[in-house]
Amino acid sequence: MLPSTQYWRLSERQVLNPNCDDEALLLLTLHSIGPRPIWRAGDVIEIQPHHPENVIDNWLDENELNGETLLTYQGHQQSLKAWLADRELSKINVGTKLSVVSPEDLLDKLPYLHKRSYSVASVSENGQLQLVVRLFKKDDQSLGLASGFLGQYCKIGQLVQGQIKSINHHHHIQQTQPIILIGAGSGLAGLKAQIAARNWAKQHGQQNIGDTWLIFGERHSAAELPINRLLQDLKEQGITKLSHAFSRDEQYPKYVQHILISEQATLQQWLENGAAIYVCGCLSGMGQSVHQTLIDMLGEATVESLQQQQRYIRDVY
């Protein structure tokens, strides 16, 4: 049976790196419409992106179609412009009048936009879904389809279609087990969810919650930035050890793999105590560099053994 469609209301959007000459890093908060789905740290949500209005308007003009025309399709009625919001807008020959093609034929010619997956940054027990999204800019300065929708085109209060997807192989780390969380940028989402899960368990009476070491990389070290205040808030919530890496720090620029190298003895001690490693973020760059650094430090056999024991989990994209 296919899962039912889930809708979420975007209730808050916070820029975590304002006034930085960077792509914006955003913390989004959404609330479920209807019964709240259950999800766990390590899960993802598949978001259905929408085009910005100007893209739809241009397509309508090119095809000489009236976007305000009401169409009934699969039992639902809305304007043609609304139907087109989440469709691939390829060039089609429908003539100069909408009447020459049925609504079904028109929409059947236009497949849905591909969904984009985002790591969740909260657990369902918190009562809200959080995401951390980097507002991607293309070479021509236009925005990425999904990040542009979530980060700019979607208005506060608007509904977003998103399906929770359980990633079972991300669920094997026990709360009593020490954990080393490694990530950068929007990878904070998966790390933040792991911390939230442990905090919730601790608050609800679970004993012997394992230690948490957060190793996180961003670009700027200014303490007043919301991203760095958020990291301090996470530390105050019970993180055992917090290590920063700022790639554009004027005095000591570094990446997360440099922390691993400088803290090799500590890393090995945590692993000897049974710690798991959870990496979240971009595969190219951070994900590959961290993986190679672990191999260089621990040996390929040890890294493979950690993976087989499900003590090295990579949530990379």
Quaternary arrangement of the chains shown? single chain
CATH superfamily of one domain: Nucleotide-binding domain of ferredoxin-NADP reductase (FNR) module
- CATH level-1 class of one domain: Alpha Beta
Low-confidence stretches: 94-99
Helix content: 25-40%
In total, the number of strands is: 13
Number of helices: 10
What overall form do the CA principal axes indicate? elongated
What's the gyration radius in Å?
22 Å
- The chain-level structural class is alpha/beta
| Lateral arrangement of strands in the main beta sheet | 6-3-8-1-2-7
User: If classified by CATH, what would the architecture of one domain be?
Assistant: 3-Layer(aba) Sandwich
Distance linking N and C termini: 28 Å
InterPro entries: Flavoprot_Pyr_Nucl_cyt_Rdtase (IPR001709), FNR_nucleotide-bd (IPR039261), OxRdtase_FAD/NAD-bd (IPR001433), Riboflavin_synthase-like_b-brl (IPR017938)
EC number: 1.6.2.4
Protein name: NADPH--hemoprotein reductase
Keywords: Flavoprotein
